[in-house]
Amino acid sequence: MTTSVFKFVQGEIFGHNGSFYVQPAAALLCSILLIVAFLAFLIAVFGVYFPFINRFFNEVKIRHIVLALVIITAAGWAVTLARALAAHH
Domain residue spans in the chain? Predict the structure, then answer.
């Protein structure tokens, strides 16, 4: 696990030294996984499959989701690299 994931789990999500500051892409993926886990919990407990999930996957293709994740990860790495270069000079 990365530093961002540890900070996310400890509740240091925002702020100067929070999860989104350290690694924005990892923090965003943690947020998405948290939402997915919550929806899975609701479906498992209540046994109701929410119709908005079907509508979401009918309109949004998997390749769009993968492309968005790649762009978010690349942007997060670029921000981290830019901060490291700025701190070095």
Answer: 3-88
